[in-house]
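Example 3.2
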Amino acid sequence: MKYTKPPLSIVQQIETLKKRGLIITDQSRAARYLSFISYYRFRAYTYPYQDNNNKHHPFKPFTTFDQILNTYLFDRKIRLLVFDAIERVEIAFRTQIIYHYSMKYGSQWYENSKLFRKETLFKKDLKVIDKEIGRSYETFIKHYKKKYNQPARPPAWMTLETTSLGLLSKIYENLELSDEKKQIARTFQLKHPFILESWMHSLSVIRNIAAHHGRLWNRDVSAASMKNPKRTNAIWLENRNIQNGKLYLVLSSIIFLLNTIIPEHHFIDKFNRLITQYPDIPLKQMGFPRAWEKEKLWCKN
């Protein structure tokens, strides 16, 4: 089937929304927002407020432009909150891997295939590392290349500072189950490395969505495969009946990790202020269960 829909002017965009039943009381204000947000980005936030079983996609009764706009603004702010938190988690995760493996196996441990489970993945990740080193503008990488020619690759504490969280999570996952790998998981109060593997993979996916200004609030992130641990070494969720693939589990894992990395963090306070500022945002779309606010994990701050 060939796509034949023409582009819509902003006036036409507003008329389309109104025909579908969206209440717009100030058209000039709506036009201004659509001029800077984009109709097609804005549309991603309208779907939960529409009857999508109807080919005309009518809005549910009494749905307003401001309601959709507030959902967009809420998503933007939670995206910034999550992005900032993941940065702290990423730095801590990177530091732990570099420290434990460098202390045990030396500066070039990441080049040692014997430390990894699958050689094919090891070689693949090493090629990505070489690309990252090659295009890095970090001062310490430039200094190393200028001053040293052996080993060809910089030490782990330089090299792995240039890698993405996604690659770092793959490297950790492919490492053999060793005392060092277990210790890194225990440092983050997790009993099993495979939980930390899934969390870091998931957080790398979420980070990339946030970095590219993608929608988070009601997104299905099941592709990230975040595991819900049965037991941990610190306070975790008591309610086991929660939806996998929703933001609630992601946010809970971030809180859990921050509790170890930065015990005095204010993530929960900031989130609570955000939902107070936008009280009409349906948290159910994010996978929040009933009585979530009574969870010990969420009551910490």
